[in-house]
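Quick illustration, no need to memorize.
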Amino acid sequence: MSEDSEFIALTTLLNRIPAIKGRIGTGRDDAAWWVKFVIDISDPLAWRVVQELGHVLNYLSLTERLPTVFMPVSPPPYLNGGPADFLSWVIECRDRRFSPQSLADCLAGRLPNPIDDRSTWSIDA
């Protein structure tokens, strides 16, 4: 299976999430795999998306933790003037036994449903 094909389910799901925009990068090394993307911080649902992903990916529960980390990444602000355009988000997994497909299945079952319906992401709905 090629590297790109093993990420198709996960990148397809992430592309359906409100506020995630642009190309989603993927990669793998000896110890980990990762996906990198941009969340449009001007989108009214951006903070909600960050909260939902942070909850599921970083700390679902004491007994049901995923082998993933969700975090922001940025080049040094002094190099780019600090605009938010350079802020990206990364999901890293250090357990090679936990596949991108497994994460896609997990997210599909825990994020608002339907995932691409903006009204399901609103707390006020």
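The helical segments are 3-6, 8-16, 46-59, 77-80, 100-110.
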